[in-house]
Amino acid sequence: MCYSAEMLKGKRVIVTGASTGIGEQMAYHLARMGAHVLITARTEAKLQKVVTRCLELGAASAHFMNGSMEDMALAEDVVKEAKQLWGGLDMLILNHIGYTYFNYFDGDVEHIRKLLEINFLSYVAMTVSALPMLKESGGSILVVSSKAGKIGIPFVAPYSATKFALDGFFSSLRQELIIKNISVSITLCILGHIATETAEKTVSHVMQKPGAPKEECALEIIRSGALRKRELYYPYTAVRIPLLIRDWAPEFLDSLTRNSLNVENVKKS
Ligand SMILES: NC(=O)C1=CN([C@@H]2O[C@H](COP(=O)(O)OP(=O)(O)OC[C@H]3O[C@@H](n4cnc5c(N)ncnc54)[C@H](OP(=O)(O)O)[C@@H]3O)[C@@H](O)[C@H]2O)C=CC1
Ligand SMILES: C[C@H](CCC(=O)O)[C@H]1CC[C@H]2[C@@H]3C(=O)C[C@@H]4C[C@H](O)CC[C@]4(C)[C@H]3CC[C@]12C
After folding, report:
1. Which of 24, 68, 98, 165 is the most buried (most CB within 10 A)?
2. 189: closest CA among 157, 158, 205, 212?
3. How does this protein sit in the membrane (predicted)?
4. Is the pTM of this model over 0.90?
């Protein structure tokens, strides 16, 4: 299959976590392609601005729903809203994450529970609600994950747990869909360091290189979903090579990962 932006024209797409960062950029790319977009996040004022910009860029339609994905009812309501607005759904882009810290694990189990709800369980809840519509359209689910969802990276233990969980659940579900001949694709997007405002605020003091551009990253995610790829690795070399090393030389990869960070800049408590 060959990719063209025309593939997204008139498609009905939900993008979560689209008030900032990569999600916001995905909404703009989809708008330029002439898709219908329904975006979510907590902050109404930011979502309103993104919707206005999407309409200026040429979206077939643009709507938002705000609220926290800690609440599974919201996860389900967003999908119901898509059904009401469009009568169906072609693409579900699961991208939002809750706030976390970048530091030594502090022993806070409640933080992990909350993060699992936002970063993992709400993804599952939205998928369950959206599957009937996606089966009907032969649609796609895009799950935004991270290098930290495939490899042990220090200082992100709670976050990493939620992203590994996504791999387990969605890679298993993909197998079941194939066995049942259901034409819904699942693309797991494995991202390295991307220069979003949140990431720069959180990790610029430990990174030795700048993050990859969020605009290009957003386009690559949409492209990989339109092409119904199994996984996306972006930026390719920084993500794919460590994954190839992972199972053959895990200790070597652990050491490479530690050495790629300015760990002396992380405060020990
Ligand atoms: N940037 C990076 O280096 C990398 C990012 N990724 C992945 O890419 C995706 C996007 O990351 P990035 O763009 O950097 O993140 P941002 O922090 O820019 O965006 C996060 C989005 O989630 C929303 N959000 C936050 N808390 C909640 C909540 N409780 N309920 C619902 N929505 C919420 C935010 O809006 P609001 O605050 O208004 O709710 C915002 O729209 C994530 O899945 C992340 O794991 C993966 C690897 C690297
Ligand atoms: C430090 C990691 C890369 C190390 C390497 O290349 O060897 C980064 C890879 C993924 C990053 C995290 C991520 O997945 C997104 C989070 C999103 C939030 O906006 C805050 C930052 C992240 C925890 C981010 C931190 C750096 C990475 C682990």
Report:
1. 24
2. 212
3. Single-pass type II membrane protein
4. yes
Angle at 191 between CA 55 and CA 33, to 5 degrees: 25
Query: How remote is the CA of residue 148 from the centroid of ligand 2, in Å?
Result: 7
What is the Cα gyration radius of the chain?
18
The pLDDT, as a whole number, for residue 269 is 63
Structure token digits, residue 193 = 């360091």
Q: In angstroms, what is the span from residue 80 Cα to ligand 1's centroid?
A: 22
Ligand 2 near 212 CB (within 6 A): no
Q: 259 exposed, middle or buried (CB, 10 Å; 0-12, 13-18, 19+)?
A: exposed
Q: What is the CATH T-level fold of the domain 9-265, as seen in this structure?
A: Rossmann fold (3.40.50)
Residue 84 has pLDDT above 70, yes or no: yes
62: number of Cβ within 10 Å: 23
The residue written with tokens 């949409």 in the block is: 222
Question: What does each C-alpha distance from 140 to 22, 215, 240 come to in angstroms?
Answer: 18, 21, 23
What is the SS3 string spanning 222-257? HHHHHCCCCEEEECHHHHHHHHHHHCCCHHHHHHHH
With a pLDDT cut of 70, the percent of the chain lying above it is 100
Q: Taking the chain, what is the end-to-end CA distance rounded to the nearest angstrom? A: 52
Assess whether 234 carries a catalytic annotation.
Answer: no
Is the ipTM here above 0.95?
A: yes
- 118-172 pLDDT, tens per residue? 999 999 999 999 999 999 999 999 999 999 999 999 999 999 999 999 999 999 9
